[in-house]
Amino acid sequence: MKHFLIFCATLSVMILLSCESQEPEPSDPMVFKFDSLVSESYEIYFSSNPSTTITAYASGSDLSYHWSTTAGDIFGSGKQVTYTSNPACCGGYQIIQCIVQDKSNQYDVKEVEIYVDF
Amino acid sequence: MLIFEKYRMKIWIILFISLVSSGKVSAQCCSPGNPVGGTANLSIVPKQVLRMNTYFRYGYADTYFEGSSKSDFLFVENASYNFLGTILTYGLLDKLNVEVELGYYFNLTQNYDINATKYTLEGFGLRDGVISLKYNFYKNAPKELEFTAGLGTRIPFRKNPQTVNNVELPIDVQSSNMAYGIVAQTFLYKGFIANGLHLFLLNRYENTFENTQEYRYGQALYTSLFVSKALTTHWSLIIQVRDEWREPDQRFDQSVPSSGGNTLFVAPQLNYNVLQQWNISVLADIPVFRYYEGIQLSPKYAFSIQLSREFDFLKKINSANDVF
């Protein structure tokens, strides 16, 4: 009887621990994370596709998106912008940088490189 | 001598108005340029005299040039700016002046048409200030000959690029060069009072240092020749021929293609003097020749209107003493 009780108690503890560990991690959309920076195209040619759309994929609360480039022009704002560049003055490889920041001032930086030509 | 003295004030008024309205319209890849109203080499004012020159300027560009020929290249559909500037010159000594140049862009706008989609980028804000000392090295009133030179520094009011909605604006619509620099000027005057003619030769050299973006504007040299003729007691006509040369810019220590070149302007100007105190002037800036490295958007025209006056503090003090 004593052994049986010990066995039941051990089994109960194991079951309880087992159930706890099987619970899924709570997904928190408020947790800051800058997943990726993606361009529709990584080569733009003035004669055929002179611009490209760049999107920042990030999660967190009250995100702000800050955009800059080594050369060229960025239109729009927020998580998605359009990039173009005058190949006459600013061709070759240009870097577009995006800084995503949340309300608690956590931030992350990502860059894409776009080739610009006629 | 007396004739020179009689016309002296008018000469300076005409001169500084001309200079104030002269505008630098540098061609870069996408910009109509930056007005330098009045920057150039004004001569000096007497001790304890303050000269104020305020001007408004509008500039427009919509055509690309390759070398000296029009190009069918189209990136920026058109570009324009509205600028308000002022130049304050004060006589520290009879031959030594201090001069401050300040200005504000209400807008620096570029309109794009890319694959039939319209975009606009617009910057605004303070232009870099310039503070200079000017010294009158030579003055011979009977011969109607004068030479003045000045040296100053460019002071940026901004060290980082302007952003709008958290997006950094391109360099062509930034109101500031974001860098310190050196400005040197010379001024040569020769009068022919018997014929009612005045000639002015002005040179201005600018060397801007590298900014925080590792961008450096090319050295620039502006040479202007002015001929002025008094039409009536109040009206004067001035014709200015101005050459603007600029070496290519540098980004990350490499020459920027499609930057630098030469533009020749003709600028007719009409001036009206009110009560021998105020001067109102209008000016048009018309490019007549260009040669650019690569393909660049070229200035098409610019208009300026300006108001100027001198304030003699020494005279006021003397007048006050006379009262008591």
What descriptors fit this protein?
heterodimer; A: 118 residues; Immunoglobulin-like; four-stranded antiparallel beta sheet; 46% strand; B: mainly beta; Porin; three-stranded antiparallel beta sheet; disordered N terminus
Q: How would you describe what is shown here?
A:
- In chain A, 20% of the residues lie in helices and 46% in strands.
- Chain A is of the alpha+beta class.
- Chain A has one domain: Immunoglobulin-like, CATH 2.60.40.
- In chain A, the strands form 2 sheets. In chain A, strands 1-3-6-5 form a 4-stranded antiparallel beta sheet, with no helix packed on it.
- Chain B has one domain (2-323): Porin (Beta Barrel), CATH 2.40.160.40.
- In chain B, the strands form 3 sheets. An 11-stranded antiparallel β-barrel of chain B has the order 1-3-4-6-7-10-11-13-14-17-18.
- By secondary structure, chain B is mainly beta.
- The model of chain B is unreliable at 1-41 (pLDDT under 50).
- Chain B has helices spanning 2-21, 313-323, and strands spanning 49-67, 69-71, 76-91, 96-114, 117-126, 129-140, 145-155, 163-164, 167-168, 181-192, 197-208, 215-216, 220-230, 235-246, 250-251, 254-255, 261-274, 278-312.
- In chain B, β17 (261-274) and β18 form a beta hairpin.
- Chain B has 2 helices and 18 strands.
- Chain B is globular.
- Classes of the chains: A alpha+beta (118), B mainly beta (324).
- Chain A binds chain B through residues 46, 49-51, 64-78, 81-82, 84, 86, 88-91, and chain B through 28-30, 73, 75-76, 110, 112, 114-115, 117, 119, 121, 161, 163-168, 170-171, 251-252, 256-259, 294-296.
Global Rg of chain B: 20 Å
What's the count of strands of chain A?
8
Identify the most extensive interface between protein chains.
A-B, 27 and 31 residues
State the share of residues found in helices of chain B, binned by percent. under 10%
What is the CATH T-level topology of chain B? Porin
User: What is the CATH fold-level name of chain A?
Assistant: Immunoglobulin-like
Largest sheet of chain A: 4 strands, antiparallel
The assigned CATH architecture of chain B is Beta Barrel
* SS element count, helices of chain B: 2
Beta-strand segment tally of chain B = 18
- Tally the structural domains of chain A: 1
Average pLDDT rating of chain B: 85
What proportion of the residues of chain B form beta strands (DSSP E)?
A: over 45%
State the shape of chain A.
elongated
Largest β sheet strand count, sense and barrel closure of chain B: 11 strands, antiparallel, barrel
Segments of chain B where pLDDT lies below 50 for 5+ residues? Answer: 1-41
Count of structural domains of chain B: 1
Q: What is the string of SSEs of chain A from the N terminus onward?
A: HEEEEEEHEE
Multimeric organization: heterodimer
User: What radius of gyration of chain A results from the CA coordinates?
Assistant: 25 Å
